[in-house]
Amino acid sequence: MFNSNFVTLKAAMDVALARQEIHSQNIANAETPNYKRKYIEFEEYFRESTMKLTLKRTSERHLPLANKKVVPKIKVQKDTTLTNDKNNVDVDIEMVEMVKNALKYQTLSRLMTSNIDRYNAVVRGVR
Amino acid sequence: MNEFNIMTISATGMSAQRLRIDIISNNIANSETTRTENGEPYRRKVPVFQELLRTVKGKVENGGVIVKEIYEDRSPFRIVYDPTHPDADENGYVKLPNVNVVREMVDMINAQRAYEANVTAFNTTKAMITSALQIGR
Q: Which residues form the Flagellar basal body rod protein N-terminal domain (chain A) (predicted)?
């Protein structure tokens, strides 16, 4: 009954929340020696999975293509160094990215509400 | 992963920076202390931060930051010629703590900024959770 909008929105919101955790961790460790910033890769895999060609089933007995679940991957950026203590967290960039991510999350939750509203309109009957 | 863990991460960041400001205040307050319990002048103290990772049900989770130890700076004491000082040696030199107040002030501003960054992160998380609570309203 419910279309994949909910699933897609939920996945995107989960990732935004996971990103927020990573940003918090990076900011908390902005002064920790040898700490390397973490980041999440997700959209890259997501795009790949939705754009992938699907196989046509010519017989009912063919196995359906397994729906590959996209999971966010936490990565560590090891190759740069910003300060003498080998830490590479740039607090300014981290803050900007965090605010961008939060706004994205708020947009997604607004979208989720309007999605639910549409179902409500159908269920109650629009007059 | 849950949203309250994110808030705890920011909280560890805040308390670590606050402990750092505590230590810096202590360093500045003792910048002229020539007598401590072990008989030598006060030594500058520095907190050592470490990333905190928690293992929950076999999975490693981000836990923020922790102050691993409070390290005593082993750099040499400042030596000042002041024969009238009660702690002066036979040549009239006094050993003063290895605290550089200017450096402490710089560190303090740094810690304050880092604290504020953690507060901002916390507020952002709070705004996100509030917006999630508005879903369906």
A: 12-36
Chain A residues with CB under 8 Å of B1 CB are 17-18, 21
CB-CB under 8 Å, B51 with A17:
no
Angstrom distance (rounded) from CA A55 to CA B68: 55
Q: Most B CBs within 10 Å: which of A31, A82, A108, as the mutation test of the B interface? A: A31
Query: Do the chains contact at A98 and B124, CB–CB below 8 Å?
Result: yes
Q: What ipTM, to 2 d.p.?
A: 0.87
Taking one residue from A and the other from B, the number of pairs with CB-CB distance under 8 angstroms is 102
Neighbours of B105 (CB within 10 A): 12
d(CA B17, CA B67): 9
Output the pTM of the full model.
0.84
Q: How far apart are CA B16 and CA B114, in angstroms?
A: 10
Largest CA distance in chain A: 67
- Is the pLDDT higher at B27 or at A43? B27
